[in-house]
């Protein structure tokens, strides 16, 4: 086993619809509730609450492993938890989707639904602030994807 292979670890991402990611990686960055958390090989064990943001995974190539992914992958994350232990990262998100698979019409649908929810009288001030931040992030994603 060469040095590059020894510095990888397992990463999985699960949302309410099922498993979105299951691969070997050399690094992961998750949007914790209080800022970004970078994870490398041999990271100390921890459980962290996720916030709103982008999760980045540097997946190893399929030539090295029989994985399901390779390269830098990005995912929209809105809440959940990340468990880091024994060179494994398991992310369970309340809402997540892969940016590489995102179709413009799906993104527009999510943006429209979020925009409709923002003025709702049923939302508390904290929930309204969260929905506004979610809307800003979704629009930035759309701009970065050229939508």
Can you characterise this structure?
By secondary structure, the protein is α+β, with helices and mostly antiparallel strands. It has 2 domains: 96 residues, Sandwich (ATP Synthase, domain 1), CATH 2.60.15.10; 41 residues, no CATH class. The protein contains 3 helices and 7 strands, in the order αβββββββαα. It has a 5-stranded mixed beta barrel with strand order 1-2-4-5-6. Strand 2 and strand 3 form a beta hairpin. Helix 2 runs antiparallel to helix 3. 23% of the residues are buried.
* Secondary-structure-derived class: alpha+beta
Number of helical regions: 3
CATH architecture classification name of the largest domain: Sandwich
Helix content: 25-40%
**CATH fold type of the largest domain:** ATP Synthase, domain 1
Instruction: Indicate the CATH class of the largest domain.
Output: Mainly Beta
Largest sheet: number of strands, sense, barrel closure: 5 strands, mixed, barrel
Oligomer status = single chain
Query: If strands are numbered along the chain, what order do they take across the biggest sheet?
Result: 1-2-4-5-6
Q: What characteristic shape results from the CA principal axes?
A: globular
Number of domains: 2
Which value, in Å, is the CA radius of gyration?
A: 16 Å
Strand content: 35-45%
Distance separating the two termini: 43 Å
Q: What name goes with the CATH superfamily of the largest domain?
A: F0F1 ATP synthase delta/epsilon subunit, N-terminal
């Amino acid at each position: 086993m060469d040095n590059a292979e020894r510095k990888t670890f397992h990463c999985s991402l699960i949302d309410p619809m099922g498993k979105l990611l299951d691969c070997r990686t050399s690094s992961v960055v998750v949007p914790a509730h209080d800022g970004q958390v970078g994870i490398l090989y041999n990271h100390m064990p921890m459980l962290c609450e996720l916030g709103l943001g982008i999760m980045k995974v540097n997946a190893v190539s399929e030539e090295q492993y029989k994985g399901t992914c390779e390269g830098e992958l990005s995912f929209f994350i809105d809440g959940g938890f990340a468990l880091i232990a024994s060179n494994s990262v398991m992310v369970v998100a309340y809402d997540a989707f892969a940016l590489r698979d995102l179709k413009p019409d799906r993104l527009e649908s999510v943006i429209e639904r979020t925009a409709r929810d923002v003025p709702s009288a049923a939302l508390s001030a904290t929930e309204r602030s969260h929905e506004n931040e979610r809307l800003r992030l979704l629009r930035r994603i759309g701009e970065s994807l050229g939508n």
